[in-house]
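Tutorial sheet, problem 5. The two components below are modelled jointly, 408 residues in total.
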Amino acid sequence: MSKREMILDALQELLYEGTAGTASVQDIATKAGIAKGGLYYYFKSKEEVLDALVERQYSNVIETCRTKLAAVDAPALEKIKLLLYFYRSTEVDRAIDVALHEPQNAAIHQKSMVFILRQLSPIVGEILQQGVEEKIFTCDQPEQIAEILLSPIIFLLDPGLFTWTDQEVQLKLKALAQMLEASLQAPINSFAFLYENWTQQKLK
Amino acid sequence: MSKREMILDALQELLYEGTAGTASVQDIATKAGIAKGGLYYYFKSKEEVLDALVERQYSNVIETCRTKLAAVDAPALEKIKLLLYFYRSTEVDRAIDVALHEPQNAAIHQKSMVFILRQLSPIVGEILQQGVEEKIFTCDQPEQIAEILLSPIIFLLDPGLFTWTDQEVQLKLKALAQMLEASLQAPINSFAFLYENWTQQKLK
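Model answer (structure tokens):
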């Protein structure tokens, strides 16, 4: 294993232990079993280690979604549905997810939300563009619309930030579906999959 | 000054000093010049002190917007424009704003984003409802639409989370304006004020 990976593993362990938020560069280096100077060879700051760890965690999830999606030949609307399904069913390390919602790990949590938005936006943007070519969507700015539609999903519906009831989540998803149908000039109820059977979707 | 306010002032000072993220309950009590037990009389945890401080900081800004808006008799579209103007021109303590974007204060930053969304949504929702009554908007779920439209503004356009160029921000606001016009069935370009003269707006 490379030293870089050892450093990331060390921070990940501190995350499990709940001390990642307050850990110093020295603490991370000690945990990794290397000298502080060794850590600085790979990372300029604790910030950079956090960045790299979040990237490693989530790039696997995103890459899985991208690969599965690339193997599918389907219309745009079906692809959006599939992307949502792949994303929800790809295993995210449960302990990491819980740790991310601890207040002391808020910085890492924020980075993960930013990373997910940045990584998913081009994928969703491409699907929207495909929908334009299929003449099912009308959309001048697929990339920006992708970012805007992902913002409420990643931020407003984050269970660590807000504590909505299932019914409240469903109402928000219904409003989002209707906004998307109207702004993309998509068929009525074509985005109903976002909110239909929400409770069952959640249990998957 | 009440002890409660003294405790909030203490945490605010730690925020200025950049040590709020790692400060213990004892550190906050010491800074406030009171016993740890005294702090626990008002707050169950450091978390609760953070909550209260963010609430104090931002409730003033929101309250100012609400009061100014209540004094105005204007159509819904004009009120949304005014709300945006009031919000941008209400003085937020610059040092607090900078401190909120330090990684060690990420938990407080997240709480501020959640608080702003929760406080602004009903205000925007009421304006959307007024627009429905004026027959300028069509909207079944004004409250949810308000939350969805505020999500990209609060999350995606947060300069501490993302580093977009002015041109990128303008493109995102343009896409948001077009989504709102389409989904509210509002007149074309009625939300153009969101992105027009963006650079000048920013300088205000």
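Marking note: The interface with chain B takes residues 21-22, 47, 50, 103-104, 106-107, 109-110, 113-114, 117, 140-141, 144-145, 147-148, 151-152, 154-156, 161-162, 171-172, 174-176, 178-179, 182-183, 185 of chain A (CB under 8 Å). Full credit if you identified this.
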